[in-house]
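Below is one protein, fold included:
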Amino acid sequence: VLACILMKYISTRGGILPLSFEDAVLTGLADDGGLIVPEQVPTVTREEMKNWRQLSFVDLSVEIMTKYIPDAEIPKSVLHDLVSRSMSSFSHPSITPLVRVGGVYVLELFHGPTFAFKDVALQFLGNLFEYILKKRNEHINVVGATSGDTGSAAIYGLRGKENVRVFILFPKDRVSPIQELQMTSVQDENVHCLKVRGSFDDAQSIVKGLFADLDFKRSHHLAAINSINWARILSQIVYYFYAYFRVMDSSSSHNDDYSQLVSFSVPTGNFGDILAGHYAKRMGLPVGDLIVATNQNDILHRFFEQGLYHKSDEVIATCSPSMDIQVASNFERFLFYLADDTPATLLQWMDEFSSTGKLTHSGDIFARAQKEMKSATVHEPQILDIIRKYYLTHGYLTEPHTAIGIAAAEKYQSRAADTNDDAAFVCLATAHPAKFGAAVVRAVGGQVSSNGLTYTIPPSPASSSTMLPLPQASSPTSSSSSSSSQDSNNMVDVCDTFGPSRHLLLAHAKGSRYTETDATLEAVRSHIEQILRETDRT
């Protein structure tokens, strides 16, 4: 309790005074260019885990968050209301249900309004921003970059919020049609989309550049929505605990001493999702392996395999676009941990990487990194093979990012079997398959509509008793929903249960709202300033 009362937040680069939780949320990227982290990581006792085991997702969230948020800043009753309202937009009563598919567990994180894992954090962050700003009588301009899912989740979390305007940068031709339309079809006046003629790394670099311009940041009250915002990481810690408890519930042993280890395989691009697992482990959750699962853009895999965090010449476009990233923003927080929370050491490493595009570790630091996390890289043919196998064998339809996590889990599960290790493996399912239907059709056959928004696939020969019911959710503009069906050609419509699909088709017919821009800091800054001037006049 005392630790929480005194909890402050610092920069990984050591150039700012300690911040309160609310200031940390509004600051986003620290003024010295570092990332915000808690001064200390609170621990969880076995007794606390015993008491938490049967809590709802909302109640568990509150218990974990109060370890990081002093009651003097946000009273527990207020925090409960914020979390409860945030999770009310999810279509599944468990929020993040855990299902058993074959030999692995799948943690379904796609039951939110945009059908991606980022809804868990961004629905909460939207309400958190609004609460803090109203209390302080302030306003902010949220700026973020997206490789696909963050943008739509941020927009759905912030649309219509008081005292908040949001600017989302996304790379041209590097997101799926549904991802783009989820962003550009939103008509709320406080939402602005910028289509950048470049890669996600270009967009992310521009956002960091805007925050590094301290005059621009302060005069326009910039705030961060990407996972550089600590509140994003905090929200995601919760579902690691929740998944662990659900594995224990399904285990044949009672595990009353919470000694059983559970491993997590995490599709990884910007390193935020697996970083939340790292913090959960440091808090005391009995985690076995944390597996960094990457696609062909494998800079993180090369670090954990060889100690080489070296940028490649280009970002490869893949069927898992949300992971087409070279420079993972949240990796700095993990490097800070490897540097024993020493800003001077971390700053030296970041300067080296900034100037050369390379960071190399060996010896004790590399050994420590490998002890903390494992890794695997999964290429296109294997991704499609996993989607096909799980649909045909288990009747479970997944998408490329989740398939990468499953493939990595299978790799380490096989190794564990060789050593008689009975650790359970949980794969994080980061998106609904309808968001990446073109890849699903490539894997299992079927058809894609001309506008890329609807997909039909052959029915699975697997028993329906093992088939995942696709989530049903309301359209943002309608309370109606529909269940899965088959057409006259005996094809399953992947999008029938994708709630916003009808809304997206309607929005597609009406047109989209976005501004296309060059991938330069100057061009984006100019567009944002112009939009701010126009909106201020109205």
